[in-house]
Automatic annotation (TrEMBL):
Gene3D superfamilies: NAD(P)-binding Rossmann-like Domain. CDD domains: SDR_e. This is Membrane protein. PANTHER family: BIFUNCTIONAL POLYMYXIN RESISTANCE PROTEIN ARNA (PTHR43245), NAD(P)-BINDING DOMAIN-CONTAINING PROTEIN (PTHR43245:SF23). Pfam families: Epimerase (PF01370). Residues 3-232 form the NAD-dependent epimerase/dehydratase domain. InterPro entries: Epimerase_deHydtase, Lipid_A_modif_metabolic_enz, NAD(P)-bd_dom_sf. It comes from Aquamicrobium defluvii. Coiled coil: none annotated.
Length: 310
């Protein structure tokens, strides 16, 4: 197939795009490439790789690129509640409006596989798993824009949506701010972390299993079309305190403390069932412990001390 990936040089895209190329697909990546770095440099050896510098909101580019694709994977977004709160205009126009514009240009013969977020569930009921039938209740601009974009993709059974758990793992375009990545970084570099509201729970998934989910949806598109699917590790519905305990099994010197006062601005708290996707034949390859071990190895190479003396 020929696949159009918007935002393909990001955290997920820089793992997804090489995988698609290695599996024989042609891939056009529409990205601003604003960081000027080389996350996709190894892809240039593939004749089927076409990088296009541009903005996913540029409707003239969408008019040109969308009709040429057999499938579209819209990754371009401001990801995370803090970033969206900082730039609400870009969050709205990129996370929602650009996806709506893309769906309007796609024909019924084309496939759209859209990654939304299970943070759309907001605050769940204690002890009750969120399923795809659970009412969505986003509590941030990030969650709201992704939920609205998902509705556009699912309208008239046009596409498949994957409600991603909190992603972790190494990537060429690394993000250390994601929760597992962040806590593991602190364990390796600082040996300590202070936690606010450590009982808050969420679900997790390795970035390579996200890529596996995209490929699974493309391969089973007709059967999955028009539906949302939770994509996460069923073995990893964990509180922040439980996550730290798992990390300490790998880094015994790691100390974590729950603050007696203060609160986390991210109020998400839910557990998620991934059974619907698993029934289609998808299963994860990476456990949480596998990912923590990978991160520890990766952090031996990374330095994040730009403004430090040491």
């Amino acid at each position: 197939m020929h696949i159009l990936v918007t935002g393909g040089a990001g955290y997920i895209g820089s793992v997804l795009v090489p995988t698609l190329l290695e599996h024989g697909h042609g891939v056009t990546v529409l990205d601003t490439f604003e960081r000027g770095t080389t996350e996709l440099a190894s892809c240039c050896r593939h004749a089927g790789f076409e990088p296009v510098r541009g903005d996913a909101r540029d409707e003239r580019l969408l008019d040109e690129l969308v009709p040429r694709a057999d499938a579209v994977i819209p990754l371009a977004a401001l990801v995370g509640a803090p970033l969206c709160k900082q730039d609400p205009i870009t969050a709205t126009t990129l996370n929602r409006d650009a996806v709506v514009a893309l769906t309007k240009r796609a024909s019924p013969a084309q496939m759209i596989v859209y990654p939304t977020t299970n943070s759309g569930y907001g605050i769940g009921e204690k002890g009750i798993f969120c399923t795809e039938e659970t009412p969505l209740n986003p509590i941030s601009l990030y969650g709201t824009t992704k939920v609205e974009a998902e509705a556009a993709v699912l309208e008239n059974a046009q596409g498949v949506t994957l409600r991603l758990a909190t992603v972790f793992g190494m990537s060429p375009r690394m993000r250390i701010d994601l929760l597992v990545n962040d806590f593991t970084w602190r364990a390796v570099t600082d040996r300590a972390v202070v936690i606010f509201e450590g009982h808050f729970k969420r679900n997790y998934i390795h970035v390579r299993d996200v890529v596996k989910g995209f490929e699974h949806a493309l391969a089973n598109f007709d059967a999955m079309r028009g539906q949302p699917y939770n994509l996460g590790l069923s073995s990893a519905n964990l509180s922040k305190l439980e996550l730290c305990e798992r990390i300490r099994a790998h880094v015994p010197q790691f100390v974590y403390l729950e603050a007696p006062i203060g609160e986390d601005p991210d109020k998400r708290d839910y557990i998620v069932s991934n059974e619907k996707l698993e029934r289609t034949g998808w299963m994860p390859d990476w456990s949480l412990d596998d990912g923590i071990g990978e991160l520890i190895r990766g952090y031996r190479m990374i330095r994040n001390s730009r403004y430090a003396n040491v």
